[in-house]
């Protein structure tokens, strides 16, 4: 077997950190969304991301982020990626990165879920359902959380994405009961009539509506991958596949040897640090979700920017800890512009940054026509053939 170019490949997905209009943004009513650009403007140039900047974060953009000039000599290779999947949810983005674009639009429910689905959930759980319409996740527990505590009802809501979210107070509905209800709900939306990307358990805690908080016990029950992914191919070839964060949930554990659950972005980076110390040959795929759930959906640019700066500090340690035969890839799965209308994801291009300590060159990777180029590059590194995407491995010298 030919030795891989890089023994270990680390990909970190900054969940929702888009970098401006995708070519098809108008189709999603997202023209003008620009997560990174609007964050720079909201911070009035005070956003400081020195490690991302030296990798080429502003270089990959048409217009640099306010306060973050383009690097004169970027450390690594940089570019942007466009999405070809039918949706703009995390599942679409991650599946496409791993060579399985979601070509058919999944079911969405702008008027709430059909009575037949809700009635089956009520019958199975023995609990009435309330809300059943699109809603902000934090607002819905503010508006209905106290009622849920009093009655034991299930709060079911959705968004512009193909998701069913089921919220309950942890003191009222124990976690395992909530997870069991979600597992059952998952069986109702696997097709053929309704196909939903994710059923998400959304437990919360707190004494009253002014103090409710969603907990890290969230769990995503994703649609089983509809075909082989790059993770499957790596696993079958004998390479170790490690998932950090909600990555394991998104792929239903398929093709994954070891998984770490994240309590937060910083907990996720602790896991990255732990894996950096391991001796293995393979791929570590990390998702950091706080940018999305804590700040993007809540339209909180100040919190979003601070979370990016916190990540950038931790990135400095990662850059120092990488071995010469390691490759680091940084990207995102979609946008979630905290300065844009609504509370949904935004259809944007995503950043692509690549660096290894043994690189002697740097430059632009251009605009990639699909997220699948990332997975194709990982497979190419391990001498495996991709079914989707074009590898940029040969550029990384």
TrEMBL record:
SUPFAM superfamilies per record: Alkaline phosphatase-like, DeoB insert domain-like
Cross-referenced CDD domains: PPM
Domain Metalloenzyme: 7-385
UniProt key word Metal-binding: yes
Note describing how the cofactor binds: Binds 2 manganese ions.
Enzyme Commission code: 5.4.2.7
Reactions that this protein is recorded to catalyse: alpha-D-ribose 1-phosphate = D-ribose 5-phosphate; 2-deoxy-alpha-D-ribose 1-phosphate = 2-deoxy-D-ribose 5-phosphate
Residue sites binding Mn(2+) 2 per the record: 292, 297, 345
UniProt GO molecular function: phosphopentomutase activity
InterPro entries: Alkaline_phosphatase_core_sf, DeoB, Metalloenzyme, Phosphopentomutase_DeoB_cap_sf
Keywords: Cytoplasm, Isomerase, Manganese, Metal-binding
Positions with a binding annotation for Mn(2+) 1: 15, 333-334
Keyword Plastid: no
Co-factor(s): Mn(2+)
Similarity-based family: Belongs to the phosphopentomutase family.
Function: Isomerase that catalyzes the conversion of deoxy-ribose 1-phosphate (dRib-1-P) and ribose 1-phosphate (Rib-1-P) to deoxy-ribose 5-phosphate (dRib-5-P) and ribose 5-phosphate (Rib-5-P), respectively.
Protein name: Phosphopentomutase
